[in-house]
């Protein structure tokens, strides 16, 4: 019998959808102690030196060093300020507030950093660039006209905006990336990497070892909206997982907004008829919860339902006893383990101080870690600050864990041997449990390996 550590979860996942809506740009200026999960001692968050975060050796933010020139010769830079944009889709009428914590975590970082002295003495002037799901290209064009870089954000339909960014020379440290075209684009550094031709299969690897008799009945369900360019997720996943013994027996797609699925029973019947035993739902908890309601009504569940990290959310566990046989693979240290990981506690303290109404989405960590990586690169550039330099210095970090917020991840999207990591959580009685036996951790609480980053044809 597996042993598990219970976690109560308050993290909202993101939805990848498209709809007609408005958009806008908004300008913003503005104590446990212990050891980290890898054993490094840190000071209490309340006693941390201004601008110092987690396990990062040097201050992230602070005044300009003695003798620094502060010379500025690139767009978005003055001697005293640095202009940064944050992209997202929160302002829409279909899924209001979706991915909002990308904005809120960015605002919290900017407030915390500016209070400590800014980036090399430059005050960060941040502009929220909300695409509202349908205006990705327009908001990226706005950023091209004003910003030094875009940091900490993410667009559901980023494939529509990537050429605009590349053509204008804007650099990006994104919170997440979706489309294959965006994943392979130049001028970006990813704190949480999304590779163009590799799939993170760490969670599938764990399931294959625990349920070897079920993986010959592999099924995928996803929204038609998230197919993006290239062959699409179903074909990519089937190819990447074949070496582990997975055999695709079902590939289902449901329409995205403005269409609404109000009856999931036909999909459930199709899965049952196809012999699905392991179901990969590549979507958000807003979809998974009603889908499992239909499974309960039909009286049939796959033996395993496996979900990406954005489903680490109260929306999922609020499904109650309808949520069965369900696992989520995550790459961040869960918020509820903060007592054992001071960087996570420091992050929570910063969020609660500067943005107390934040939604506790997992993507908040993505955004904050992206800002930390960007700031580290800015500091490394010093007086030679330029767009090319911050990309070079960002990639020079090679392996990044956000100062202890995440598993160690390889930031270069073109790395030949990236590492993929996962901690496996199971939904039990309306809560998440860390399943240590299923995870088989080898890096803190995570399972990490090069084998789990599997190549496929885009």
Q: Which architecture name of the largest domain does CATH use?
A: 3-Layer(aba) Sandwich
What characterizes the major β-sheet? 9 strands, mixed
Number of strands: 20
Question: Could you tell me the radius of gyration in angstroms?
Answer: 21 Å
The parts where pLDDT drops under 50 for at least 5 residues are 1-24, 26-42
Task: Bin the strand percentage.
Answer: 15-25%
What is the CATH superfamily label of the largest domain? Response regulator
CATH structural class of the largest domain? Alpha Beta
Q: What is the CATH third-level topology name of the largest domain?
A: Rossmann fold
Give the termini distance in whole angstroms. 39 Å
The structural class is alpha/beta
| Tally of alpha and pi helices | 13
Molecular structure report:
With 458 residues, this protein is of the alpha/beta class. The chain has two domains: 255 residues, 3-Layer(aba) Sandwich (Rossmann fold); 176 residues, Response regulator (Rossmann fold), CATH 3.40.50.2300. The chain contains 13 helices and 20 strands. The strands form five sheets. Strands 1, 10, 11, 12, 13, 14, 17, 18 and 19 form a nine-stranded mixed β-sheet that branches. Strands 2-6-5-7-8 form a five-stranded mixed β-sheet, sandwiched between helices. Strand 3 and strand 4 form a beta hairpin. Helix 2 runs parallel beside helix 3. The longest helix has 19 residues.
């Amino acid at each position: 019998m597996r042993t598990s550590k219970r976690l109560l979860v308050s993290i909202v996942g993101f939805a990848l959808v498209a709809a007609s809506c408005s958009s806008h740009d908004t300008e913003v200026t503005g104590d446990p102690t212990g050891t980290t999960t890898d054993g490094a001692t840190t000071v209490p968050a309340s006693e941390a030196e201004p601008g110092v975060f987690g396990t990062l050796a040097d201050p992230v933010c602070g005044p300009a060093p003695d003798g620094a020139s502060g010379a500025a010769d690139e767009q978005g830079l003055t001697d005293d300020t640095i202009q940064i944009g944050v992209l997202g889709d929160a302002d829409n009428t279909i899924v209001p507030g979706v991915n909002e914590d990308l904005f809120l975590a960015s605002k919290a970082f900017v407030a915390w950093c500016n209070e400590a002295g800014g980036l090399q003495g430059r005050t960060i002037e941040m502009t929220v660039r909300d695409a509202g799901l349908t205006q990705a290209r327009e908001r990226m064009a706005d950023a091209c006209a004003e910003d030094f870089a875009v940091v900490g954000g993410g667009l559901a339909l980023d494939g529509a905006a990537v050429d605009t960014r590349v053509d204008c020379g804007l650099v990006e440290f994104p919170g997440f990336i979706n489309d294959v075209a965006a994943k392979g684009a130049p001028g970006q550094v990813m704190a949480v990497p999304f590779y163009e031709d590799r799939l993170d299969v760490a969670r599938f690897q764990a399931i294959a070892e625990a349920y070897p008799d079920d993986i010959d009945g592999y099924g995928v369900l996803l929204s038609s909206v998230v197919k993006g360019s290239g062959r699409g997720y179903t074909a990519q996943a089937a190819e990447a997982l074949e070496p582990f013994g997975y055999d695709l027996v079902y590939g289902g797609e449901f329409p995205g907004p403005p269409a609404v699925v109000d009856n999931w029973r036909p999909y459930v019947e199709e899965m049952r008829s196809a012999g699905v035993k392991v179901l990969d739902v590549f979507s958000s908890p807003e979809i998974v919860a009603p889908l499992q309601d239909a499974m309960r009504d039909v009286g049939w569940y796959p033996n395993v339902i496996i979900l990406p990290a954005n489903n680490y959310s109260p929306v999922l566990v609020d499904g109650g006893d309808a949520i069965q046989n369900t696992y989520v693979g995550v790459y961040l240290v869960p918020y509820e383990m903060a007592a054992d990981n001071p960087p996570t506690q420091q992050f929570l303290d910063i969020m609660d101080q500067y943005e107390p109404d934040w939604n506790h989405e997992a993507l908040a960590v993505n955004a904050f870690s992206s800002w930390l990586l960007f700031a580290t690169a800015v500091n490394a550039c010093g007086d030679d600050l330029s767009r090319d330099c911050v990309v070079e210095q960002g990639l020079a970090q090679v392996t990044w864990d956000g100062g202890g917020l995440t598993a160690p991840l390889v930031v270069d999207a073109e790395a030949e041997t990236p590492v993929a990591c996962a901690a496996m959580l199971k939904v039990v009685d309306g809560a998440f449990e860390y399943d240590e036996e299923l995870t088989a951790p080898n890096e803190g609480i995570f399972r990490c390996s090069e084998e789990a980053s599997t190549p496929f044809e885009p």
